Amino acid sequence: MEQPAHRTGTTETPPGTLTDVLRGVRGVVFDTDGVITDSARVHAAAWKEAFDAFLRQHPPADPAMRRPFDARDDYLRYVDGRSRLDGAAAFLASRLPDPPEDAVRAVAEAKETLFLRRLHEDGVDACPGTVRLVRALRRAGIPRAAASASRHAGELLTRAGVLDLFDVLVDGAEAARLRLPGKPRPDLFLEAARRLGVPAGSAAVVEDALAGVAAGRAGGFALVVGVDRAASEETRQDLLRHGADLVVRDLAELLDPADGRRPAPG
Q1: Which among 106, 132, 217, 251 is placed 20 to 30 Å from 260, CA to CA?
Q2: Domains detected in the chain
Q3: pLDDT score of 4
Q4: SS3 letters for 189-210?
Q5: What parts of the chain have a pLDDT lower than 70?
């Protein structure tokens, strides 16, 4: 199958130098969906279609619990950063008491089918600010890892044209093989740091999910950067409460650009 063209080319991301925030770290672990690529929108749309179909077919007894899945708030709170089964279980438990395991699996499988269809139809792009930052880290000799609970992380990074910018990839398939517990446990990020050869206490984690920043904090990472692309004060505060040291709207804020913008602490 022909892959969609990606818009992130080698000449489209101007160089930058790192701000003081990152100059002390010896390695950086990046979440994939919503941080490296714009695939979070594809995941969120697939989850919404799967959950809304389930809620229509199995309406909760409480009418207040029958509202559709919110592709921003519910996505960030229940499924972003988690494995498919964990995400399906977390959201269904918020609407139904003790959701049966077969229902959780059915929704997770429906989401997988919908996600792959949308991925193949629409493709994904890399986030330009992230690409600028990763290239600056590479020029500075700081190793970089991509980590994801998704088994499709390698395909996403390849389609976005950025896989070769990372020294290490730990995806959902590797996590399953190693039996790593999902976020908010830090094991996925710790494994990525281990493969970089950098202790967590000398590395940074970059995440957009609440469970992910909690995992970075639990893992003892030197720096946990939250990404809030929606520029929502509520989301920013949630990321800080869950363990982010600072929150940025775009990772280019961690560069020292000509216009002098710098990330504000917290």
Answers
A1: 217
A2: 20-38+125-254 (3.40.50.1000), 41-122 (no CATH)
A3: 34
A4: HHHHHHHHCCCHHHEEEEECCH
A5: 1-16, 257-266
Tokens 């976020």 belong to residue: 183
What's residue 8's pLDDT?
A: 37
Q: Which of 33, 125, 171, 228 is catalytic?
A: 33
User: Distance between CA 247 and CA 207 in Å, rounded?
Assistant: 10
What are the φ and ψ backbone dihedral angles of 205, each rounded to 5 degrees?
-120, 135
Over residues 18-72, the pLDDT tens digits come to 888 887 899 999 999 989 998 888 889 999 999 999 999 999 999 999 999 999 8
Peptide bond into 184 cis (omega under 30): yes
Task: Determine the distance from the C-alpha atom of residue 179 to the mean position of all C-alpha atoms in its chain, rounded to a whole number.
Answer: 20
Q: Please indicate whether residue 167 is annotated as part of the active site.
A: no
Enter the DSSP assignment of 181. P
Q: Which of 20, 31, 74, 171 is catalytic?
A: 31
Instruction: Scan for tokens 């600010």, then name that residue.
Output: 129
Query: From CA 168, how far away is CA 70, in angstroms rounded?
Result: 33
Query: What pLDDT is stored for residue 16 in this prediction?
Result: 63
What is the strand order of the sheet 246-248 is part of? 168-170, 144-147, 27-31, 203-207, 223-227, 246-248
Reply yes or no on whether 38 is catalytic. Answer: no
Residue 163 contacts residue 174 (beta carbons within 8 Å): no
Q: What is the pLDDT of residue 9?
A: 35
Are the beta carbons of 90 and 79 closer than 8 angstroms?
yes
Q: Report pTM.
A: 0.77
**Residues 6+ away with beta carbon under 8 Å from 221:** 29, 186, 189, 193, 200, 201, 203, 204, 205
